[in-house]
Design brief:
alpha+beta; two-stranded antiparallel ribbon
Length: 55
């Protein structure tokens, strides 16, 4: 990625970010995914999974 044009690097970074968010969403059945943003940039992705027990 070192020699990539700035726009290509930005596109690759955005695709990687979207992939990580989708992976977090797909890996849980119940719960939530929280995205933390600072200075207009995603700095953290949190995933909390809930496990439903049968009654």
């Amino acid at each position: 990625m070192r020699n990539m044009p700035k726009t290509a690097l930005k596109d690759a970074t955005e695709k990687q970010l979207l992939s990580q968010v989708l992976d977090a969403m797909k890996s849980i059945k119940y719960g939530h995914v929280q995205i933390t943003i600072q200075d207009s940039k995603v700095v953290q992705i949190d995933k909390t999974e809930k496990i439903r027990l049968d009654k």
